[in-house]
Amino acid sequence: MRNEASQLQQMMKECRSRAKVLAITSGKGGVGKTNIAANLAICMAASQKRVLLLDADLSLGNLDVIMNFNSKYNISHIFDGQKSINDIIHNGPEGLEIICGASGLEELANLSEFQRHRLLNDLSKLQDDRDTIVIDTAAGISWSVVGFCFAADHVLVVTTPEAAAMTDAYAMIKVLVGKNFAGQISLIVNNADTVKEGKNTYEQMSKVVRRFLNIPIYDGGVLLKDERLLSAIRMRKPVVLAYPKAQITSSLMALAVKLDNGSAVQDDTEGFFKKVVDWFF
Ligand SMILES: Nc1ncnc2c1ncn2[C@@H]1O[C@H](COP(=O)(O)OP(=O)(O)OP(=O)(O)O)[C@@H](O)[C@H]1O
Ligand SMILES: [Mg+2]
Q: Does 60 sit in the ligand 1 pocket, CB within 6 Å?
């Protein structure tokens, strides 16, 4: 009997899935991470997925501007116990949920063992109850940015066709490979003048990464330079909602569909938040 019960428990454990975590990063600043993260997350949420967008850029994060909400509370407000996790979740379009200030997770390392355990349990539930978590990271290759990427299942590296952006994107990929990142890495080429230019950028990066780092990087697609993105930002509306028929919207939707295939992963790992805390601790 006991044997059957433990077998059942084992099977239940194997069947449980938790959110797949996508981290959006770049190395170079200002290449479009926040806009891509916000719009991608909305496209995913629109297809009935439970999606959480985590703003891991405390310093310059402008997710609240693009999404037009007031980010009064963030992760740091749950450390003193005054706010619960549910209090700091903002409601975005299409049922998307947003949490600001994931960089505050670094503070978890300073808590007592008991407090940390309790908070980690609460944070882990966020991953258990959702299909996808999208993380918008800060610019640069700091310890904390690498930590968020390393804990993710899939890292989307954003570059533009400019040499400086490509160099920084390569440096980010090199750091992840050097630390034996086990997940998937994809390259998104943003702000391209033509699809051809974007594809060339991907081909060049892919070739160099394969040659010097010996790994494949997947094609995350090309997003063209589009005035409507700027106009949407001025309206404080994500471009996929402001301009549903624009080409950039179709490209973002196509990327969301591609990434959605296979979202929610088997629960055979320690979970994203535990990995992040272990990284900082
Ligand atoms: N496809 C695009 N077409 C036109 N402009 C774009 C495009 N993508 C990004 N931009 C411009 O780049 C700016 C920066 O975008 P965004 O804030 O998303 O970049 P970021 O990588 O998150 O920046 P940071 O590194 O500061 O966090 C936007 O405000 C917009 O002006
Ligand atoms: Mg940003």
A: yes
From the CB of 109, is ligand 1 less than 6 Å away? Answer: no
With CA atoms as reference, report the closest residue to 170 among 135, 141, 190, 138: 141
Q: pLDDT at position 3, please?
A: 65
CB 190 near ligand 1, within 6 Å: yes
> What per-residue confidence (pLDDT) applies to 123?
82
Q: Which CATH class is domain 18-269?
A: alpha beta
Ligand that lies nearest to the alpha carbon of residue 28, given by its number in the listed order: 1
Which of 208, 227, 215, 252 lies closest to 46 in space, CA to CA?
252
pLDDT at 232: 95
CA pair distance 187, 199, nearest whole angstrom: 11
Partners of residue 52 on adjacent β-strands:
97, 133
- The CA 186 to ligand 1 mean position distance, Å, reads 19
Domains of the chain by residue range: 18-269
Looking at residue 128, its pLDDT comes to: 87
Ligand 1 nearest atom to the CA of residue 61, by list position: 27
H or E, element range at 220: strand 218-224
Indicate which atom in ligand 1 lies nearest the CA of residue 37.
18
* 38 Cα to the center of ligand 2, angstroms: 10
How large is the angle between the packed helices 163-178 and 195-213, nearest 10 degrees?
40
Atom in ligand 1 nearest the alpha carbon of residue 38: 18
Distance from Cα 25 to the centre of ligand 2, integer Å: 9
**pLDDT over 90 (residue 120):** no
The model's pTM: 0.90
The residue contributing the CA closest to ligand 1 atom 25 is: 29
The predicted-structure confidence for 183-201, as pLDDT tens digits, reads as follows: 999 999 999 999 999 999 9
- Within 159-268, where are the H helices? 163-178, 195-213, 227-234, 239-242, 247-260
Would the pLDDT of 264 be above 80? no
